[in-house]
Amino acid sequence: MVWFDQLLKYLATLLQSAGVPDDKLSIAALAVVYVAAIIIALVLVLVLLKIAAKGGKKDLAEPGSVEDAGFEAEAEAEAEAEAEAEAEAEAEPVNLLARFHAGVSRTRSALVGRVDSLLRAGRKIDDDLFEELEEILITADLGLVTTRTLMEALEKRSKAEGLSDAAQLRSSLMAEMSGLLVDADPITPDSAEGPFVLMVIGVNGVGKTTTIGKLARRFAQQGHKVVLGAGDTFRAAAAEQLVTWGERAGVDVIRHAEGADPAAVAFDAARAAIARKADLLILDTAGRLHTKVNLMEELKKVRRVLEREIPGAPHQTLLVVDATTGQNALTQARQFDEMIGVDGIALTKLDGTAKGGIVVAIACELGLPVRYVGVGEGAEDLQEFSPQKFVDALFEN
Ligand SMILES: Nc1nc2c(ncn2[C@@H]2O[C@H](COP(=O)(O)OP(=O)(O)OP(=O)(O)O)[C@@H](O)[C@H]2O)c(=O)[nH]1
Ligand SMILES: [Mg+2]
Q1: What separation in Å is there between the alpha carbon of 156 and the centre of ligand 1?
Q2: Judging by beta carbons within 10 Å of its beta carbon (0-12, 13-18, 19+), is residue 26 exposed, middle or buried?
Q3: Contact 344, 184 (CB under 8 A)
Q4: Nearest to 356 by CA among 172, 117, 115, 108
Q5: Are 208 and 238 within 8 A, CB to CB?
Q6: In this structure, which residue's CA is closest to atom 25 in ligand 1?
Q7: Ligand 1 atom closest to residue 238's alpha carbon, by position in its atom list
Q8: Band of the pLDDT at 36, cuts 50, 70, 90?
């Protein structure tokens, strides 16, 4: 190629003037051409890559002008994010249900697993069968009174409906159980006369502070202005624990120093909730004092302060009980209801126990609605209780 020979000659002249020896001129000129070719090829590849990237973006933004391209791409990204959020919101109830089902799995295998192997198809309904069923219910923490109530209802129903096959008793048991559970309206913090006050009580370690944290998050997410009161001044680090939950939920926490008078915390929290125009004040309380009498007296005093500061307060007194303690939870509920007055129950740690039958016992023996159940330690693991949801999850195959 003539032009290539000429280029080499030209380069050789340049290299000669640069001091390259005559015998090395042609090889040096070739090396220069070689390096230049590599550089040009690299630049070309880079340019092509850039053009390809721009083309891709334009495809996304089309139709529209070049100026519109950025804006439209942004709008598209936003729409995608919105769609994702919507999909998440739609998926959430499914997740919650799955969490709930997992939460009652131990009770399901302990209670319904045994019931199912007893009520296998083909077995006749007789006194022996009823006796065995009774034993299963008692050991699944439904307690004597509730079990008797259920058994009487079942025997009556089986006679009235002329049932003969044991398998037919399953749906009767489901119906009787959900009939015993108390359906409660969910707590809605709407009060015309200032903040709605939720006082949370219960013995130590049952999950009061955790439940308050979960509730604060739930109500804040629903758009309510929430204030928390750290009324447990007895236990070291109790207020810090509440402050941490408050930070997570993005809500204010009113606290005093350790050992302060809890009634003074209740007073300040009530005043702060009014001043900050809060929709909801949730007050944490101590679970342990030197004696049970001290604890009950302190709770009564806190209650009086709330009553005095905010009309109608406390609007709800929520007793937290730990499902893993089985029949003890029932005893606690009875005592707190007698001494302080309880409007509803939050039953925690259902995920860690086979004693979920206690839900039925609380409703049947005390007539108190279980409002919330805790099925884990996470912020999402507090769920509104519904009798139907509970029985369905328990008897799900
Ligand atoms: N697995 C499980 N753990 C829970 C649940 N609710 C609370 N817990 C755990 O129970 C423990 C005690 O919870 P707290 O909220 O500190 O209990 P408390 O009633 O405030 O205790 P005191 O302040 O000592 O009276 C913590 O480790 C919680 O994470 C639940 O629903 N499931
Ligand atoms: Mg606590």
Answers
A1: 41
A2: middle
A3: yes
A4: 108
A5: no
A6: 204
A7: 23
A8: confident
Q: How do residues 312-354 score in pLDDT, each as one tens digit?
A: 999 999 999 999 999 999 999 999 999 999 999 999 999 989 9
Q: What is the distance in A from the centroid of ligand 1 to the CA of 205?
A: 6
Centroid of ligand 1 to alpha carbon of 210 (angstroms): 5
Q: How many CB atoms lie within 10 A of CB 308?
A: 12
Residues at CB less than 6 angstroms from ligand 1: 202, 204-210, 232, 235, 238, 287, 348-349, 351-352, 374-377, 381
Please state the φ and ψ torsions of residue 371, each to the nearest 5 degrees. -90, -40
Tell me which ligand sits closest to the C-alpha of residue 245. Answer: 1
Q: Under the phi-then-psi rule, with left for phi > 0, alpha for psi from -120 to 50, and beta for the rest, what region is 26? A: alpha
pLDDT tens by residue, 238-278: 999 999 999 999 999 999 999 999 999 999 999 999 999 99
- Residues forming beta bridges with residue 383, ordered by sequence position: 373
* Residues paired with residue 322 on neighbouring β-strands, in sequence order: 348
Give dist(CA 81, CA 253) in Å, integer. Answer: 33
**More confident of the two residues 162 and 66:** 162
Which ligand approaches the C-alpha of residue 213 most closely?
1
Asked whether 226 and 251 are in contact (CB, 8 A), the reply is: yes
What count of residues does the chain have?
Answer: 397
Contact 285, 199 (CB under 8 A): yes
